[in-house]
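Final paragraph of the annual report: two paired records, presented back to back.
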Amino acid sequence: MNNFKYLFLILSTIFIFEMFNSNRAEACTINSGVVKHGTTGADDSIEDGCDTTPSLYEVVIYKLYLCTSSPTEATTTSTVVLTYCSQIFDNSSGATASVSQGQEIVLDGTYTRPPNGTYTHGYAFMDNTFGITWAGEIAASMDGMSSGSGVFCGTVAGSGTHSKGSTHSNSSVCGANAITPGKFVETLAQFGASSDAFSSKAFVENINGTTASITGYLVDSNGHRAANTGEVDKLEGLVAFANPVVITSDTTSISMTFNVGEGMHLVDESGELYIGSGPFQAIMTAN
């Protein structure tokens, strides 16, 4: 059971979604540890928004499932249908996963071994709040949303909400010297820009250069798709694995690799550095 427990733990890192833009951005170009800033090749720079690696990302997990086919998604009047899924983790109070590149995590909760089979999808029930910690150097001076100005920037200890009609403006701090970052906690109540029409669904494909895809759903307190930003209570996530997870009677262990290389979104907002969330991925192999 301990070996299978690690399978369940790794699943908790594959369901994080871009908050500010429902389409996956390009990876930031980083030269000698400095993040690109400029209009040349803008898709891979902060100028138009790009994704890079956070130092630490925290998410709260309630339930995890492995599925032999894709579940039927929730609607505004119904919950997700998990007929072809097996629950593998449960914590009704929520278990906090602190995720960093290449690091194993431990979730407190109840684990259940899945039946033997080939699992093509995973499904997660999560809180819609996320903790982000990061600091780095940028190729051009920027203003922090919270305070300061300079080429060194990072997350500030604080919290904010991204919703239809408004977003946080206090996630970053910048200065002339290296920044000691704090943990910024985001509450997600909208996919896409705050100026966009309300969207309770986001889809991201080809995660970190693989064939994996993820779909995020903002749901209300009944588990139905939220009809507006004020109804959002939790986040649910569906992942289509790049490679199926095959469990057999001979399976004794799970090897795993975290890929959080695009787990944070950076964008220049009128000279100020906006820091938001991006997609994570976990690669699993049953042995």
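The closing record of the year follows.
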Amino acid sequence: MPAEHDAHERDDDRDGRDGQDGAGTDALFAVLMDEPLSAEQRADPAFMAEHRAATTDVARLREHLGIIGDALADGPGPQPAPRPRPRPAERRRLRERPGVRALGLAGALAAAFTGAVFGIGWLAANGGSGAMSNGASADKAAGSAASSAGQGGKEQGGGPGYLACARLVVEGTVTGVQRLAGSGEERVTLRVTHAYKPAKTAAEVEFRFGSGTDARVRTGVRLLVGITDGQQVPDRYAVGAAEIATERSWIVRDLPESRTMTCQDR
């Protein structure tokens, strides 16, 4: 009798441990499959705690995947016509042993969370450029009249031909604006942070602006200027990070080609 009693106790212990593992797995599976809970499950505090935790994790995962999907859907270019969504396949219960099923579900969740984290990192890395693009549109709309005076109102005024004829193309921060009495001009001092042409310049450069050309040109603002050889006043300029980013893109692109040209080629 004692030996038989001990054997029954060992079997009961194993059944209890297997039941605990199955409860944890069934809680996660119930959330993923959106299955209703039985009265026995609702009465089990441990199962309900597992179910609440799984519900929170799955909701967070769906939110992250939704953010990624929205970001990809809002990408540039025309959007294709939406395709009709196929009807969801009938849900099937997995007929695997609890241990195998738990391993499969854990692996799926780990892969999904990894994708969500990668997508959020991608969004953080690229979201800034989208905001800059939107800011550029707003800045250009607000200051189109002023900026067109310096840039000709169009990018085709630039290009490698312009760079070949330019004596100075630099970007930096305005450190001083001084009105020149009796000349109708202002002397602008710029602390250079990026020199495009020539590749090396003084730490600060000075040039003239027509007085009142652009009220945004003041101490502390970011400014990019281009001055054609033989001129003292910029014939191209951009104010603020958004406009500068637009100008910088074609300057960096066309600068190598401009070095193979002479000004007469323009």
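The mean pLDDT is 71. This concludes the annual technical report; the extension proposal builds directly on these records.
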